[in-house]
Structures are given as C-alpha cells and as structure tokens.
Design goal:
Elements: E1 3-8, E2 23-25, E3 28-31, E4 34-37, H1 44-53, E5 60-62, H2 66-78, E6 83-88, H3 96-105, E7 112-117, H4 122-137, H5 142-155, E8 156-161, H6 166-170, H7 176-184, E9 190-193, E10 199-203, H8 208-219, E11 228-234, H9 238-252, E12 258-261, H10 264-270, E13 275-281
Parallel strand pairs: 1-2, 1-6, 6-7, 11-12
Antiparallel strand pairs: 3-4, 3-5, 8-9, 8-13, 9-10, 11-13
Helix pairs in contact: 1-10, 2-3, 4-5, 8-9
Organism: Psychrobacter pasteurii
InterPro entries: DegV (IPR003797), DegV_C (IPR043168), DegV_domain_contain (IPR050270)
GO molecular function: lipid binding
C-alpha cells in the first residue's frame, strides 16, 4: 500500500472498538509535571483515575514534537509510502496542525503529504480520518478527499456540557472571564465548536440536567431523520450517560444511538465529567455503520 491516512491521537481512535487502517500521531498529556504519551503509557481509563483519585497539578496537553513527527514520516518513507493524508484536531485549540505542516515540507521531495485541519475535535476528527481512509482506498485524489471532508465537516454539529469547568478554565479552552463567571454562579455553559474550530460557550445554564435538556432540544428534530448520524460523546461517567440517554429517548423517541468515548486528550482538557451530543445532518460519513448503537 503506497497511500496512508494519519490522524492525531486526539481523535480517540485508540479507544474505539473498530478495525481501521489509520495510524496515529500521538499527543502528550502532562500530569504532575510528568509527560505521558497518549495511548502508549496513558489512556482514558488511567487518566480518569489520576484526575479523580490522585492529587495533582493542573493537567494539560501538548502536541507531538516536531522531531517525532519527522520520525513518523521518515518511517513511512522507508515503507515505500508515496501519499500521506493527515487529519489534525482544530488548529484553534492545538499547534499540531502548524507543527505537522512545517515538518511535512521537508519531505516534499519524496512524498506527497496533505495536512488537513478538521476544525473540529475528538470523534469528529476520527470520523473524518476514517472517511479519508475510505476514499484513499478507492483511489481518489487527496484534493478531492479534502473537498469531501469539507462537506462532511459542514454537516457536523457538536454540543458539549461539562459539570466541572475548572479544567477548561485552567487549560484556557474558554476565556478566563467566562469561566470565572460560570463558577461563581454555578453555571454550566453549553459549548460548541464554531465553524472556525473554536470552542465557544453558547448558553449559560445553572444545572447539568438543564444543560442536557438544552442539547437534546437543539437536535430534537434532526435526530430521528434517516439522513442523519448522531452520537453521544461519553467522558466515562455512566451516571451522566444513562440520564442523558433516557432524556433523549423521552424527548425524541430515538431508542438507539452510538456512544463514543471521549479521547484522553479531550478528557485532559475538559476534565473527568461532562457529555457531548453530536450529529451529522444531511450528510453521513461512511464510518457511521461501524459503530454500535445503544
């Protein structure tokens, strides 16, 4: 195989029980000033334990260093790979896109490398990477694959609510002022990823159940449609997941939905609580059929 798709480990592909050909560029997670390699010596389950049970300094993340990206690309070159399509999490929340793009330039004489900013996060990045892989295997040009991902990205909507905002504030994923106001008044903002790839608060709600209700209402008309694919992003809190799924069933009549794990990178940034509801509306990725519904 002379073509391959890479994606950053923020996609959470490590934790999805599916078969795929996509290879990962692994980001870093820092806990107590100790650096871990995502998916190598730390995963979502272990990170949950550290965040919930062990006293620690603020957890934060960082991109894969340039020299490691260069080693990955050099290895692909030695394997005879000629075309590489790389998807990254949003360049608005990570320097991964910039670092990978710069390193890719040094391989331009030997490989055709396309670095694609998904302008999104987590499982959406995974689904876009899987879509890219599907069309790579079908022989599509990488520019055409990018156009396909652009269309999918436009159809994707994500809402997320966190029960504990301290991680988002410390990691500057929402503004300091907004975070202070939210904590002061016990407000649980509903967050979304903008078209530009920024994480922005869109509604201020005082209780997590009300935040969940808001999320369900926003997508209530779309979820039952046959031309949509919806999924829940779970941070590993079964109590929150079950409450949300029951609320979803009561409001929309949808009695099965895919539940995908939040990546360890996202967990480190927003903390061990919270939940997301995401939907592709009107344009569904090929990989949707790979995920079981509950």
């Amino acid at each position: 195989m002379s073509r391959i798709v890479l994606t950053t480990s923020s996609s959470g592909l490590d934790d999805m029980d599916i078969q795929h050909n996509v290879e990962l560029i692994r980001l870093r997670i820092h806990v107590n000033d100790v650096e871990f390699i995502d998916g190598k010596n730390i995963n979502s389950e272990r990170l949950q334990y550290l965040m919930n049970e062990v006293s620690h300094s603020p957890v934060h993340t960082s991109p894969a260093p340039a020299h490691e990206v260069a080693m990955i690309l050099s290895n692909l070159q030695s394997r005879g790979i000629k075309e590489v399509f790389i998807t990254t999490l949003s360049s608005k929340v990570s320097e991964s896109y910039q670092i990978i793009s710069e390193v890719a330039k040094s391989f331009a004489d030997n490989m055709d490398i396309y670095v694609y900013d998904t302008k999104d996060l987590n499982a959406c990045e995974a689904l876009l990477a899987l879509e890219a892989d599907y069309f790579m295997q079908q022989g599509y040009a990488m520019s055409d694959i990018a156009s396909r991902l652009d269309a999918l990205r436009r159809s994707h909507h994500m809402l997320f609510a966190a029960d504990d905002l301290s991680y988002l504030i410390k990691n500057k994923k929402i503004s300091g002022a907004a975070g202070f106001f939210a904590n002061l008044f016990s407000i649980k903002p509903v967050l979304q990823v903008s078209k530009e790839g920024e994480v922005v608060p869109i509604s201020k709600i005082r209780k997590i159940d009300k935040a969940f209700e808001y999320m369900v209402n926003q997508f209530a008309e779309v979820l039952p449609r046959k031309d949509s694919f919806a999924y829940i992003l779970s941070a590993g809190r079964p109590d929150l997941d079950s409450r949300f799924i029951e609320m979803l069933k009561q409001r929309t009549g949808v009695d099965n939905i895919a539940v995908l794990p939040v990546s360890a990178i996202s967990l480190a940034n927003h903390g061990p609580s919270g939940l997301g509801l995401c939907v592709f509306e009107g344009d569904v990725p090929q990989a949707a059929s790979m995920f079981a519904k509950f």
